[in-house]
Backbone:
């Protein structure tokens, strides 16, 4: 029961931080661009200014941001990243010793994130949201 509470608390905390510092910042940029535009034309998203997670997905899986709703992608990335970090924190809480906890955390974090991003990339590929070559 304690581990479940740690997982839920960590998930909520990380998602709130991700929302405040990543999602809200990106949505504010989009809103500022829309207020300055009179015409309703779809402008291509500047890929150099995207969050790192989305840049990874775009480069690795050739995602077409013109076909994907950017808001939904940001929300999905926030949920997945929060879930991954909460999972790693929960697993690390079973290990005793601070040094060993840090080591296990670092070893688990990257593969778990890459695996979940792989599933997201496959999901969007299956839906046909990739760049046509």
Residues:
């Amino acid at each position: 029961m304690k581990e479940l509470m740690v997982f839920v608390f960590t998930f909520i905390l990380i998602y709130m931080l991700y929302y405040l510092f990543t999602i809200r910042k990106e949505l504010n940029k989009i809103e500022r661009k829309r207020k300055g535009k009179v015409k309703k034309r779809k402008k291509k998203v500047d890929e150099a200014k995207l969050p790192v997670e989305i840049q990874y997905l775009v480069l690795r899986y050739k995602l077409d941001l013109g076909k994907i709703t950017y808001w939904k992608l940001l929300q999905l990335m926030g949920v997945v990243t929060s879930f991954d970090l909460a999972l790693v924190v929960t697993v690390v809480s079973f290990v005793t010793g601070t040094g060993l906890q840090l080591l296990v955390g670092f070893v688990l974090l990257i593969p778990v994130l890459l695996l979940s991003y792989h599933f997201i990339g496959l999901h969007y590929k299956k839906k046909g949201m990739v760049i046509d070559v």
Remarks:
- Residues 2-36 form the longest helix (35 residues).
- Residues 2-33+50-126 form one domain.
- The chain has four helices and no strands.
- Residues 14 and 63 are 26 Å apart (CA to CA).
